[in-house]
Amino acid sequence: MTDPGFSGGPLDVATLEVMARRAVGHRLVSAWAFQSDAMSPRRLQLRLDATQYPEPVRAAKLDARWFEDGDYSIHYLERRDDGTWQCHWDRHPKPGTEPVHFHPSPSASGDVDPSEIDANPHLGILFEVLDRIEERVTTLYEK
């Protein structure tokens, strides 16, 4: 199933693999895998190191889809004792807003703010997202 507003074009698997191999050098990333599998990937999943998070966070992951036309979707999800916390960054045509936009938590479906992410190449976007997640982890420790 394709998300509304996305091109529906093929995933850029080579770009996703470059993103994965570079991401494992980041202190929050513990592992990566293609979901469903490497032969028929639907998305790249980066597992984040839960030991970097304070309670009540039990697990965290980042799912990325990068399409050959340059559209993308990067979804962040925390599993917590008290439920889930999620947000996502996208680039795709969407009537009434900029193609690059951010969906904040708690539902990751609210207002969009194109200033929340820069329109950089794939590695720039990935590491900007990881930097924002690190800022969130720091904020969680301060609470």
Walk me through what this model shows.
With 143 residues, the chain is of the alpha+beta class. The protein has one domain (13-120). The protein contains 2 helices and 6 strands; from the N terminus they run αββββββα. The protein has helices spanning 13-23, 122-142, and strands spanning 29-35, 43-48, 57-66, 72-80, 83-91, 100-103. Strands 1-2-3-4-5-6 form a 6-stranded antiparallel beta sheet, covered by helices on one side. A hairpin with an 8-residue loop joins strand 5 (83-91) and strand 6 (100-103).
Order of helices and strands: HEEEEEEH
> Structural class per helix/strand content?
alpha+beta
Strand content: 25-35%
Overall helicity: 10-25%
Radius of gyration: 15 Å
Please describe the structure with a list of short key phrases separated by commas or semicolons.
143 residues; alpha+beta; 2 helices; 31% strand; globular
The gist of it:
This protein has 143 residues and is of the alpha+beta class. It has helices spanning 13-23, 122-142; strands at 29-35, 43-48, 57-66, 72-80, 83-91, 100-103.
